[in-house]
Amino acid sequence: MHTNLTKSAIAATILALGVSGCADMSATQRGTATGAGAGAALGALIGGTTSGGGSNRAAKGAVLGGAAGAVIGNIWSKRMEQQKQAMEQATRGTGVEVSQTSDNRLKLQIPSDVSFDTGRSDIKPNFQPVLERFATTLNENPATNVVIIGHTDATGNPGINQPLSVDRAARTRDYLAGRGVNPARITIEGRGEREPIASNNDNSGRARNRRVEIYVAEPGRG
């Protein structure tokens, strides 16, 4: 039993180290993956050594530990809470949604009427104050990393929408960099039209799908 248990813990730890070392993962993803693997290893050990343990209990412990570790991998500190509150205050009444994700990231979902006009990637004037305040909070909490994801509606074709979504994320990054945020902390992605949150069959739905999502994480430090 202990041999199988040890193998489970070692396998989970190796997985965590291997996944967290992938070059194409963001710092946020690495923090989540490392936390998940470490939690799985600890869960396997605890599950297998408690009363009535064994391979089944070790496996269940690994699953539960991995779920908990994924959250712990990105911490929610007092600074993160302060940043969330600051952005809630700065965006009140603008339509920007500010939330805490299940894996302890700060999420800003910015609709098209705030961020970008249809088919454009230049930042609108009413988006600038939001980014100004956001840049200030990022500079106040330099341990965080940022992922900016651009989205479009289904108007046009993927050959147009994909680069447009990337350009929107890049323009947002560049604006923050111009306000003192180290661009090395920022990862950008474009999802084109592939992840709609509403129907593309009407103007209202298309407007919701044209958006920018920003995620902020403070990776756990051991």
From TrEMBL:
PROSITE patterns named in the record: OMPA_2, PROKAR_LIPOPROTEIN
Subcellular location: Cell outer membrane
Signal peptide as annotated in the record: 1-23
Keywords, in A-Z order: Cell outer membrane, Membrane, Signal
InterPro entries tied to this protein: Bact_OuterMem_StrucFunc (IPR050330), Gly-zipper (IPR039567), OMP_bac (IPR006664), OmpA-like (IPR006665), OmpA-like_sf (IPR036737)
Annotated CDD domains: OmpA_C-like
Gene3D superfamilies: OmpA-like domain
Main location per the UniProt record: membrane
Domain OmpA-like stretches: 103-220
PANTHER family registered for this protein in UniProt: LIPOPROTEIN YIAD-RELATED, STATOR ELEMENT OF FLAGELLAR MOTOR COMPLEX
This protein's name: OmpA family protein
Organism ancestry: Bacteria, Pseudomonadati, Pseudomonadota, Betaproteobacteria, Burkholderiales
